[in-house]
Amino acid sequence: MSTHVRLHYIIKPSDFAKWLDREPDTWWMVDGDPRLTGKLDFPCPSGELSEELRRCQRDLVIYPIKPISAPAQSAGLAIKWQHLDEVLERDNPQKRRTVLLSWSDREEEWLLVEYPSWKLDEDER
User: Fold this and answer.
1) Which of 59, 112, 114, 118 could pair with 97 in a Cys bridge, judged by C-beta atoms 3.0 to 4.6 Å apart?
2) pTM summary value
3) Would you list the DSSP string of 47-111?
């Protein structure tokens, strides 16, 4: 009998925030996470999102959307923020960065999607 382990990585929210801080002009949408959508208005800039993530005490679980070659023992390993670009998905018509996540204390999965800046009103920028 074989067991299938879904590939995933673990990261501290503060480390994910470091990755977001690299691009302060990038805006993001969250779909499906009441923890963040209850505290922030989306879309929001990286700085607002990273500030809120630093307040969170639960680890983030990252699920690669597309298959990547990784040994089975990689499931559940910590990932450094410097390697997040390797697990983000860009295979969509707009080439937006997308990542499937969950909180370590919840089963519900949610999406973090790059929001195109050209869609922002002048008031939001």
Assistant:
1) 114
2) 0.82
3) HHHHHHHHH--SPEEEE-SS-----GGGTTEE--GGGGGGT-B--STT---EEEEEETT---EEE
